[in-house]
Specification:
Blueprint: H1 6-10, H2 24-31, H3 55-65, H4 94-106
Length: 118
């Protein structure tokens, strides 16, 4: 293809194929009158790596920070913040909610029908 003349390469596009630059028209209709979404910057302002000689030093540091540090702790925020986990959540439409509520009535021991966690 690199050795082909420029006009041959340009003629290889399919006229029925949606252009990458016309994609706006596909979603504009669906997004009309939707509020703008602006993602707040949630990245830390600064990161510091702290090394400890022993477990006693780790627990002393945990007390100073007023936070629990376990063998599984890889990082922490100071001051401590509540980070929402969304990995076990999903959006459900009305049909899915009604189905879940119906199942909860049939099988009441299977969990709360209003709980949308997976």
């Amino acid at each position: 293809m690199a050795d082909e003349p420029k006009e041959k390469i340009e003629n290889k596009t399919d006229e029925n194929q949606i252009s990458m630059f016309n994609v706006e028209s596909i979603y504009e209709k669906e997004w009309k009158d939707m509020p703008e979404f602006v993602q707040e910057d949630l990245t830390p302002k600064r990161e510091i790596i702290v090394y400890f000689k022993n477990e006693t030093d780790v627990q002393t540091f945990a007390k100073l920070m007023n936070q629990k540090i376990t063998i599984l702790t890889k990082s922490l925020w100071y001051p401590e913040i509540d980070i929402m986990s969304v990995v076990n959540k999903r959006y459900m439409d009305e049909k899915q909610i009604k189905y879940r509520e119906m199942n909860a009535k049939i099988n009441p021991n299977k969990g709360d029908s209003k709980n949308v966690n997976i």
